[in-house]
Input
Amino acid sequence: MENTENRNATKIRFDFKSFLIFLLIFVVEVLIALFVNDNFIRPYGGDILVVVLMYYFCKSFIQTKPLYLIVPLLLFAYSVEFGQYMNLVEVLGMQDNKVMRVVIGSSFSWYDIICYTIGAIICYVIDRKKN
Output
């Protein structure tokens, strides 16, 4: 009898290894935010890692092809950056809310777009080699 199960289907499950990677990257991001005040690691490394962080968080719960996670996450990161370009924090009246200014951001940068793209490429290369 032929196996008709779709091996490329998206499945919901918990992947402990991916979740541990997410937690490790989260700790690194927090350490960068708290203790690194330079002109390279904090602005660029943090932006690269944020896409990797989101990827491994999603990968902890969703099993699918890497591109099926990477593309939507990259588009989400781009949309957040576009929100910064449109001054979304001010439009929403949250300019005095420090947490929202950090989460949404307040200044658009093409370098951020490049960093998000690099982060997505890193995720793809890592997972492509695994599959």
